[in-house]
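WARN no homologs supplied; continuing
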Amino acid sequence: MASPVARIKIGGVSAAIFKNEGEKGVFHTATIERSYKDGNEWKTSNSSGTKDLAALSAVSQQAIAKCLEFDEAENAEDKLDEAA
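OK structure emitted
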């Protein structure tokens, strides 16, 4: 898997933003997970309890904004390339 182009973290909830290329051009996606400690070992889950939902919501909103920001920047670069 490719390295993320950005990360967002609030408490134990984090999002990784990835750049993708498809038939219609570049687009960005996000994966969201929650980290927790099980004994001495750190683990991740895509399941969240009540206390993590506020962080999940905030991380999701920030991930949306970041993906849109990256998508707009890519579209602006594409338009500049087409004009040249």
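The CA atoms of residues 44 and 76 lie 36 Å apart.
OK
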